[in-house]
Amino acid sequence: QVQLVESGGGLVQAGESLRLSCAASGGTFSSYAMDWFRQAAGSAREWVAGIDWSGGSTYYANSVKGRFTISRDNAKNTVYLQMNRLIPEDTAVYSCAAANTAVPGIEQTVYYWGKGALVTVSS
C-alpha cells in the first residue's frame, strides 16, 4: 500500500504564500497521476489541481488558476502545491491523492488519500 503524508500547512495572512508538500512511500510514485483536493468547514470536498505522471501536464480549478502551481519531483516521491496570493476563501484542509488521471471532466479513481493539512488564511 501507498502512504501519502502532507506537510507545510499553517496560518498566514491574506496575500501571503505557502507551499504544501505530499510525500509518498510504499509504492511506485511515478505510476500515478496526483491531485490536490480541499475541504472547507461545512463545505463539500473540492478538486484543486492535478498533474500527470510525468509532470508534463497540469490542471487547475478556476478558483485557484493563476495563483496556485502544482509540481512533482519523482526522484523524491513528492508532489507540491505552491499557493500564492492567498485569500480567506482558500482556508481548508488540503489533501493529496494518487489517482488514475488528473484530467478534469474524466471520472477519477482515487487509489490513496493523504490525511490532510490545514491551511488557514486570515483577512
Count of helix runs: 0
Question: What order do the helices and strands follow?
Answer: EEEEEEEEEEE
List how many beta strands DSSP finds: 11
- Outline the biggest β-sheet: 7 strands, mixed
Beta content: over 45%
Principal-axis shape = globular
Spatial gap, N to C terminus: 40 Å
Q: Nearest-angstrom radius of gyration?
A: 13 Å
What is the residue-mean pLDDT, rounded to a whole number?
A: 95
Low-confidence stretches: none
Q: What structural class should be given to the helix and strand makeup?
A: mainly beta
Residue share in helix: under 10%
What is the topology?
Blueprint lengths: L2 E5 L2 E4 L4 E8 L7 E7 L6 E6 L6 E3 L7 E6 L4 E6 L8 E8 L10 E4 L3 E6 L1
Parallel strand pairs: 2-11
Antiparallel strand pairs: 1-3, 3-8, 4-5, 4-9, 5-6, 7-8, 9-10, 9-11
Describe the 3D structure.
The protein contains no helices and 11 strands. The protein is mainly β.
Sum this structure up briefly.
The chain is an all-beta fold. It has no helices and 11 strands. Helix content is 0%, strand content 51%.
Characteristics of this structure?
11 strands; 123 residues; 7-stranded mixed beta sheet; mainly beta; single chain; 4-stranded antiparallel beta sheet
